[in-house]
Amino acid sequence: xxxxxxxxxxxxxxxxxxxxxxxxxMIPKSYTExxxxxxxxxxGDIEYCSIIKxxxxxxxxxxxxxxxxxxxxxARAIEECDRSYRAILAEPKNKSSESFxxxxxxxxxxxxxxxxxVPFCVQPEFCSFEKNESRIQESVSKxxxxxxxxxxxxxxxxxxxDLVPGLEYCDVQRDPYTNSGYAVIQYSTAxxxxxxxxxxHGFEYPPGNRLTVIFLEDGSDSSE
Length: 224
What we know:
By secondary structure, this protein is an alpha+beta fold. It has helices spanning about 1-10, 15-20, 35-40, 70-80, 95-110, 155-160, 190-200; strands at about 20-25, 45-55, 60-70, 90, 145-150, 165-175, 180-185, 210-215. Helices cover about 30% and strands about 20% of the residues.
C-alpha cells in the first residue's frame, strides 16, 4: 500500500516531505534563522529554517530545523556539515517534537546515541540503529543484507528499498533448499544505507513476514 500510494502521487515527494528532507541540528544559541540559512544553503535549496525557542523566555534552545527541497540535499548536508552541528534527519511532525528534542539533546551532549533517532554524525560505526533493541557494536557500510523466511520478488523488493534515495542495486537470491529469501542491497552513500536499515529492519513484508536487515562489508573504511 505504501509503495502504491507513492506511485499514485506521481512522485516520491509526499513520502519524502516528512522523513527525508528535514534535518535537525545543534547550533549556537546566538544564531538567528538567517545565520542558520547562511550556514546550510551551500548544500541545496532550502524551503525553510526554524529555530526552537523557549516558550516562556523566547530564547533559543540551541536547536533548529532546516528543510530542503530534495532528499539528496538533506543527505549531503548531514554528511558534509561540520560535526559540531550534530545533524540528523528530523522526526516526522506528527511525533512528539519535545520528546524528540529532549532525546536528541541528551544523546549528543552525552555522545551516546539512544532512543529511536538516527545518529548520523555521532560515531555511527559503533552503533546499531534498531528501534527499542539493545545496542551492539556494528560497523556500517553502503551495503545491506536482507533475509526473509519467504522468497523475494525482485521488482517488489527493489521498489521497497528504492523509497530511500540512492539505491544502486538490488540482487535477489533464493535458497533452493529452504525457499527463504536473501538479497544484497547497495546504496550510493552510507547515510542512505543507515536510514534504510533503520526504517526497514523488522518491517513486515508481506504482512506477518519480518525482514532482517544487517550491514555487509563493502571494502570501504567505516570510519568515514
